[in-house]
Specification:
single chain; alpha+beta; Alpha-Beta Plaits; 7-stranded antiparallel beta sheet
Length: 142
Amino acid sequence: MYIRQVSIFLANKSGTLAEVTDFLYQHNVNLRALCLADTADFGILRIIVDKPEETLALLKEAQYVCTITDMLAVKIDDVPGSMAGVVRALADNDISIEYAYAFTTAQKGTAINLLRVENNAAAEFVLKNTPYQTVGPEVLNA
């Protein structure tokens, strides 16, 4: 199962992140997780939101350059070593991770690893034989 991620390309200048987060707030978009990566000239804001398709449409209408991506979402115990287990299972099966980030949930002791891999289905298949389970967008409301 997957969680949809919205990626927004931003100029790397003061105030740009404030502008986009203000925009999301003004449109009642609930940010659940985010990751910001930058270079000298631009940044990529990757966000998990409550309404990804609606958010993408709003952003495009406002002239933001953005895309949507299916992320592999893996439910883990919020304890040391959980992410290492997921990463090891994928590495042992030659599945590379392009990038990853995580967030904790309202459910005590539970975290979600978000993984961008080349082949979500292959990664999900590998993880079915481990203690780690993939989850979908329902985890955002838990």
